Amino acid sequence: MNRKIAGMLLAMLISIVFTCGFYSTGNAALKNDPEIEELKQKYEKLEASVANLQKEVENLEERFHEEMAVIASLKAGEGEVLPIYRANVDDYSREIGMYISMPPEKSLREKLDIMAQKVSLFYFEGLPIEVAEIKTEDDGRKIAVIDLKESRENQSASEPSKYKGASWAAGYFQGSTGGIETSVCLIETFLQKDYKGEWIDGASFTYEGGRVDNFDHIANLAGTNYR
Fold this sequence. Notes:
Layout: H1 3-24, H2 34-76, E1 80-87, E2 94-102, H3 108-123, E3 129-136, E4 142-148, H4 168-172, H5 176-191, E5 202-207, E6 224-226
Helix pairs in contact: 1-2, 3-5
């Protein structure tokens, strides 16, 4: 969404919400009026819409700043630029969704942490993605263990059906298309198969510290994926 349009829509929704809020908190005698109840429901929906639009605007601003950092790195000939991959809508092959800037002086672990933070922010609504460890296999290959966690808000929920907002289990792991898109983005981005510098040899994914093979549509995340 264009940033200017997003800003205009946000301003309009805030104005409407303010107006609805004024009437919904008005005369107590009107609170049982069906029209007032209907207005209250609309107000609550608009509040949710404003919150979602605010998140979208913030995401666009963050992406704009990231793109400016990438351009600055390219112009200066300094730093590294790495891609975040996504699934092609036609055949689900990997394609570049965007680039991010990566400070070259960072350690491998620090680069993976930065990658996890950026992927979470731009593609998974801020859901926690943590690099749990980098382990070395018997043959010397370095494997990053990437843990996918639910939001803090949903940590106390008893089951996915009660989750609110963004969720791995109730959202990004669901549906054949959604599961493939999630898998391609995570696997290809963390493996960085075309990168020639020091990197991991493989990536293993966990969900809340446990196995991911309990979910039908993300079978590709199970086990270890190698470059």
